[in-house]
């Protein structure tokens, strides 16, 4: 079942055979997080690659006495401090469960060991490339779109996100105040 979920989630990046996902799943263990539980603390190195079965997580960076939300991850997607996972070095990124979440995790060493195999290497490369494209698109939108346009894009990317994620996190992600987000939401109603 887990292997099939992984396959379906990653098929739009790369259609690996189910056997690759069966092997991938063997290296994983289930874990649950409470809402607002820190998954990876700032100033630490990432120890796991996570995949969200149910729930959501946010990537945060401390800036000017406040955490800024850089990204969201919802069910059927990977979630981790990928830069730290690859380098083994600590970063200032913090990963937090934004709602009660069920995930699987793979230890960093197993993640790298799996990447030594041909299918694992392709899966990792395709996932990294897709992540890079998403982050580039996010940066372009931040520089070329206004807050209302970015909010519509966010809603399209994550339907119903406003019902699941705190307004302060959505506002932070959009680069606006919670009050400005509230005004945007009223304009939509």
Automatic annotation (TrEMBL):
Residues 23-114 form the Cyclic nucleotide-binding domain. Gene3D superfamilies: Jelly Rolls (2.60.120.10). Pfam families: cNMP_binding. CDD domains: CAP_ED (cd00038). Signal peptide: none annotated. InterPro entries: cNMP-bd_dom, cNMP-bd_dom_sf, RmlC-like_jellyroll. SUPFAM superfamilies: cAMP-binding domain-like. This is Crp/Fnr family transcriptional regulator. It comes from Croceimicrobium hydrocarbonivorans.
């Amino acid at each position: 079942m887990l292997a099939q979920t992984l396959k379906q989630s990653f098929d739009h990046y790369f259609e690996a055979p189910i056997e690759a996902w069966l092997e991938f799943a063997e290296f994983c263990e289930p874990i649950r997080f409470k809402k607002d539980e820190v998954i990876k603390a700032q100033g630490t190195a990432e120890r796991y690659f996570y995949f969200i079965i149910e729930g959501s997580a946010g990537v945060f960076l401390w800036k000017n006495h406040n955490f800024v939300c850089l990204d969201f991850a919802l069910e059927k997607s990977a979630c981790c401090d990928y830069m730290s996972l690859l380098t083994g070095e600590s970063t200032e990124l913090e990963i937090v469960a934004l709602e009660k979440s069920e995930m699987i995790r793979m230890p960093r060493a197993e993640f790298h060991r799996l990447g030594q195999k041909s299918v694992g290497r392709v899966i990792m490369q395709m996932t990294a490339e897709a992540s890079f494209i998403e982050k580039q698109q996010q940066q372009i939108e931040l520089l070329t779109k206004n807050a209302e346009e970015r909010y519509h894009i966010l809603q399209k990317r994550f339907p119903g996100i406003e019902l699941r994620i705190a307004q302060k996190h959505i506002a932070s992600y959009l680069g606006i105040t919670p009050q400005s987000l509230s005004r945007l939401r009223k304009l939509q109603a």
